[in-house]
Amino acid sequence: MKILVTDGMDKTALEQLKANGHEVVEQFYAPEELGAALKEFDAVVVRSATKVRANHIDEAKGGRLKLVIRGGVGVDNIDVKYAEENGITVKNTPRASSNSVAELAMGHMFSCARFLSIAGHTMREGKWEKKAYGKGFELGGKTLGIIGFGRIGQALGRMAKGIGMEVIAQDIFHVPGIEEQMGMKYVELDELLERSDFISLHTPSLNGVKLICKENIDKMKDGVVFINTSRGDNVNEDDLLEALNSGKVRAAGLDVYADEPATNAALYSHANVSCTPHIGAATKEAQKRIGAEIVDIIENFGK
């Protein structure tokens, strides 16, 4: 196969593909150039930077393209249905990055509870604000509400249980036996919003629906901590910023944003926001697992 890799890939996996006889081209294409380029390839491997939309698929018609692989969990940067209607298979690597994203969410929870982000920032400014940041709290004994209880949500739930948190979850799908296995329970969204000390969002893109908005924030506990490592467009950033300013939301840990690179400086520079630039899956271990899954998908394609 002739394979285009647009957003980077684990070097070991790249070498494996080449050793298996495939021609691999590493090149990023601007959106207006992507469609024509895709005609020349049997498969394309993307991460989050490249978006494969209907117009690209239309431009690629009559060419070689038959497989699109998203190195990661979400496939909202690909028009999946349109691709499949046009005979193009779409795959992703849903298992590879679960632990990495869950660990980052947990890291943001600790950062929000103990002022790690802002305290470190002020120390680099030569300040010693022990009194201001000596009023943190422990995660143990608190209730974590996880919205979207797939692989990442479950991984985070296990970590949270390990440090003594109570875990509740909301999802449209209920995994059989998971409540007994993990000692947690599924609840309706309103109950989760009302009971949780921490709320972590792990849903796919909801096509413009702002799950975290003023209406739902008003249902949350005063002083709740909100974490988002899923998709930025699931959150009304203006409503979240208002809640941070009022204290309704004590702190937020954010890895994803409505616009990326992030443009809402008032939000990401807020003193009570722990922020990272969409690095949830960006660990060496996750990238190796993603690469291995991509190789497996390609070698088994059509079998």
Summarize the structure.
The protein is an alpha/beta fold and about 300 residues long. Helices cover about 40% and strands about 15% of the residues.
Textual characterization of the structure:
The protein contains 13 helices and 12 strands. A 7-stranded parallel β-sheet has the order 8-7-6-9-10-11-12, sandwiched between helices. Strands 2-1-3-4-5 form a 5-stranded parallel β-sheet. Helices cover 38% and strands 17% of the residues. The relative contact order is 0.14. The chain has helices at residues 11-19, 31-38, 54-60, 80-85, 98-114, 116-124, 151-162, 178-182, 189-195, 214-217, 237-246, 265-268, 284-300; strands at residues 2-5, 23-26, 43-46, 67-70, 89-92, 143-147, 166-170, 185-186, 198-201, 224-228, 249-254, 273-275. The protein has 303 residues and is of the alpha/beta class.
Overview features:
alpha/beta; seven-stranded parallel beta sheet; 303 residues; 13 helices; five-stranded parallel beta sheet
Major β-sheet, in short? 7 strands, parallel
Strand content: 15-25%
Total beta strand runs: 12
Category by helix and strand content? alpha/beta
Distance between the amino and carboxyl termini: 14 Å
Overall pLDDT level: 96
Q: What radius of gyration results from the CA coordinates?
A: 21 Å
Order of helices and strands: EHEHEHEHEHHEHEHEHEHEHEHEH
Count up the helices: 13
Helix % is 25-40%
